[in-house]
UniProtKB/TrEMBL annotation:
One of its GO terms (molecular function) is ATP binding. The keyword Membrane applies. It is a single-pass type I membrane protein. It comes from the Eukaryota. PANTHER family: LRR RECEPTOR-LIKE SERINE/THREONINE-PROTEIN KINASE-RELATED, RECEPTOR PROTEIN-TYROSINE KINASE CEPR1. One of its GO terms (cellular component) is membrane. This is Leucine-rich repeat protein soc-2 homolog. The keyword Signal applies. Belongs to the RLP family. It is found in: Membrane. InterPro entries: Leu-rich_rpt (IPR001611), LRR_dom_sf (IPR032675), Plant_LRR-RLKs (IPR050647). It comes from Dipteronia dyeriana. Keywords: ATP-binding, Glycoprotein, Leucine-rich repeat, Membrane, Nucleotide-binding, Repeat, Signal, Transmembrane, Transmembrane helix.
Length: 67
């Protein structure tokens, strides 16, 4: 995957740490869903990631240093 667009998909829950297995991902948009909890540290392992959109979710305000 280079671009993963899951905007407004009624996703509910936390972002799974396994997201880091998408190592070639460049753009990840999870905006306007019902995600909550912490942003997983593993997102920092996505070394090719250029754009991350988490707008309009209920995630904690802390952004991990790994990102």
């Amino acid at each position: 995957f280079l671009y993963l667009d899951l905007i407004t998909n009624e996703l509910f829950g936390t972002i799974p740490p396994q997201i880091s297995s998408l190592s070639k991902l460049k753009y990840l948009d999870l905006s306007t869903n019902k995600l909550f909890g912490n942003i997983p540290l593993e997102i920092g392992h996505l070394i090719n990631l250029k754009d991350l959109n988490l707008y309009e979710n209920e995630l904690n305000d802390l952004i991990p240093e790994e990102i």
